[in-house]
Amino acid sequence: MAELLGFPPQVLFGQLLIGLINGSFYALLSLGLAIIFGLLNIINFAHGAQYMLGAFVAWLGLKFLGVNYWAALVLAPVVVAAIGIVIEKTMLRRLYKEDHLYGLLLTFGLALIIEGSFTHFFGVSGQPYSVPAALSGGNNLGFMFLPTYRAWIIVASLIICFGTWYMIERTKLGAYLRAGTENPQLLQAFGINVPLLITLTYGYGVALAAFAGVLAAPIYSVSPVMGSNLLIVVFAVVVIGGMGSIAGAIVTGLLMGLIEGLTKVFYPEASTTVIFLVMIIVLLIRPAGLFGKEA
Amino acid sequence: MKMLKKLMCSAIVSATAASTAAYADISDNEVRIGYLADMSGTYSALAGPGGLEAAKMAIEDFGGTVNGKKITIVSADDQNKPDIGANKVRQWIDVNNVDMVAGMVSSAVTIAVNKVVESKDKISLVSGSASSSITNQYCTPNSVHYVYDTYALAHGTGEAVVKEGGDSWFFLTADYAFGHSMEADVTEVVKESGGKIVGGVRHPLSTNDFSSFILQAQASGAKIVGLANAGADTTNSLKTAKEFGVVQAGQKIAGLLIFLNDVHSLGLETTQGLQLTTGYYWDRTPETRAWSKRYFDRTGKMPTMVQAGIYSSVDHYLKAIQTVKTDAASAVMAEMKKAPINDFFAQNGQIRDDGRMIHDMYLAEVKKPSESTGEWDLYKILRTIPADKAFRPLSESKCKLVAGR
Asked: pLDDT tens digits for B223-234?
């Protein structure tokens, strides 16, 4: 077979698939961020810490209570979302009318506290979490060996991303949510409990982060710093997609995974910087992001 | 006038007495050891609090005193930052009268600290660091590099792997000074032994996902995937390699800097078959077993080569003080370089003039889960790399203390 850009095509296919898998994480995480920003106007810097909490709840559950992976996939997001709701009710709530900066500072501070205390108790070297038996092993696709667990990540993430998009853009509940962002007073006049709606939205965004954390636990080490490594990239993804755009976050997440994957083949040294390069270019050409609407 | 003369005389006499006393005896009647290491970060498991415990064991086993003078120890977390480490050591020496610094992990910290130690004419015994430049271009007369270095790792593991047919290599290299020098050292060895390098990637430090690089390694067709990285990057590479079935597909992995705690935390399922070079393994001789058992009882873990080396280096230092009856750096260092090291850690170990402690190194292979009989039954020793082959010969040294020999 002919070579593509100096690389055998099977290498390229493999890298694209890997990119898609990493993109799935970006999509899940940036989706949560985009929902929270779109509906609450809060830049949630604690998102990385909440992702880490998801992984840790799964690990702690397995180690001390015997909660298996599948149960953790449901339980960890619920537990972490509950923590998120408490944060929203007691702290974030007071900041909606203030400048973005206050919400950012609060969530950033919370992230530092959460990560700092986990580092204190668990140390920075990662905790092992094994792949569930049903998803271990893999298939030889001809051009690459695809571990079953990685395939599962794509499937799970696409289901959740599409479901969330559908809920917000196509259902009545989603319509309320969108209306609540546009004009909360008017919506409240129709008898909808807007504060509750907002609380639940934050909880859902946080649950998405925790879900991604559980998905990540078996392939990356469960460590207190796992979220902060990823968070900055995810913020760049949200900015590229257009702040607050749901579909934009998903599509851009997958796209950035692909671009990063290709960079790892052609110039690995730049693989951690390429997303920021894309961000700069996009902001120069389309300041509102790829899918954002100009204000 | 007569009074003044008398005073002058007595001042001179007492000053002379004081300075001779400082030389012929223990300064301020106490031997003070400073233990410097990463106590809470990335490298804290390989030395860290465990290494401090090993140093304390050495002092207790010595009886807590040397020539009737008390031995004390202080410790600090250098956070892998050269400025913090160097300042701490300066404070130790200036304010707390510390005589010797032990431990020392990050090579960057060590090079900075060694400069301070040399300028203050104290002693440092480096057990944790990897870079062979510590006794090469950065060598000082006041420092000893005790356990291992990149040269030894590259030659030990590299040569053995090529000899067993692993003659084509693909590198996963951490893109910074340590990774580059590790890769360069191994490349030289592989080429000398008749192998070739078919490719490699340089990944940024603390890369999150290694799957792409592992895929490239698989596509390269190399027989050996060499990991010229450390810490979390190494454990993540190994995890991903296992997930993508690198070993099942017929390639072998050569970990170039892997400690016992890495293998223990990753588990044998992931690490089996891995070949590595180590300066110490707990289950090698009756002596190593006996000492390691005592260490285990205190810490709940088996020692890494670094932790065992810390005990041995502190013990060797105290013995030298006992012999020369002073803690003055030059006299103690001369004795340390003269006396061979024979204990559970090293047999006929010898500190060279460049500060390199040469001793036998061991080529080990990680056991299969079926071969292991216990939580810490992790390595089998394949062979001994004799001391004179394990480390960079003086004839190739760039150290100012031995140049031109």
From this structure: 999 999 887 788
